[in-house]
Amino acid sequence: MGSGFLLEPREAHNLLAIDPKNYDVIFPYLIGDDINSRVDSTPSRWVIQFDERDEQQSSRYSDVWSLALERIRPSRLEKDEKKYPRMVNEWWKHWGNKKDLHQKIRNLDRVLVVARSSDTLAFQFYETGIVFSDATVVVASDQVRMFALLQSSIHSAWARHHSSSLKGDLRYSPSDAFVTFAFPDNLSLLEDSGENLLASRESARSELNLSLTGLFNLINDEGNIFEQVKNTRRAIVDNDYKVLEAYGFDDIQLGHDFYEVNGRSRFTISDSARFAILDRLLEINHQRYAEEQVQSASGNPKAKVVKQSTMF
Predict the structure, then answer these.
(1) Which of 105, 125, 157 is the last residue of a domain?
(2) CA 231 to chain centre
(3) What pLDDT digit, counting tens, does each position of 219-251 carry?
């Protein structure tokens, strides 16, 4: 995209005050660090986005267009036109405008977002009227049951096993950690536990004035006895067991406790539970693949949910 598109909050607010129609082309801009490090998890910057408007249409936003001419155009015109025709010939547009994402979320009021690189693997709901940076991963779902599943220790075990790390943080890979993750058949069971987990987490953050990273640090601190933190731990445990129920894994004892993981104390499930979960999830994948092959061979292919179209 380029730094020329970015605006500081005061600058963005001035442009919006000058002419309210600038709301069409100026948006809050969310990066991964905003999700985890800011107490309110709100975007820290704004961004110019003319979307797919042509030059004539974009120039009608005169104050924003003047900034674009000054900050964006010079560096874009230095690019090799043969290699980067869009960047040179349509310099006012973002390099990747994420059409598929916009199409999927246009009828949603909120979506789930996680930082692409983080230690917390914390999913958070965001309103759709913002621009999501490449440092975030967006799940095109507004459902709390999806939050319950993805925020569970069950999904965390799979994601941490199938993703790489970057400077000690998990590098969340949608293709490896999400697309390959077997969803339970009874996802509807997770509505109440998801609501409880989300409410407990947000209540603790609000009352203790914490970022997501700050809250997770307290959750993982065995010596912390704040009631709000204890409530969140209980909500984590309750949600994890509800997710097990949705899978039919009721026989697995998760053994939530404080364990040392990569040299850090973490409130999580036991190794034996994690290995059992990974085995069961892999077994589901094999079973579903075999069923698809049988259906395909019989000329009656079973409809599949294409999860690749859900995450961006």
Answers:
(1) 105
(2) 24
(3) 999 999 999 999 999 999 999 999 999 999 999
Q: Tell me the CA end-to-end span of the chain in Å, nearest whole number.
A: 16
> CA 122 → CA 14, 153, 306, distances in Å?
33, 11, 23
Among 113, 133, 141, CA closest to 47: 133
Looking up tokens 């204890």 gives 230
149 and 99 both lie in a single domain: no
Q: Are residues 148 and 292 in the same domain?
A: yes
- Is residue 113 in some structural domain? no
Predicted model pTM: 0.92
Contact 37, 213 (CB under 8 A): yes
Domain of 183 in residue numbering reads as 143-297
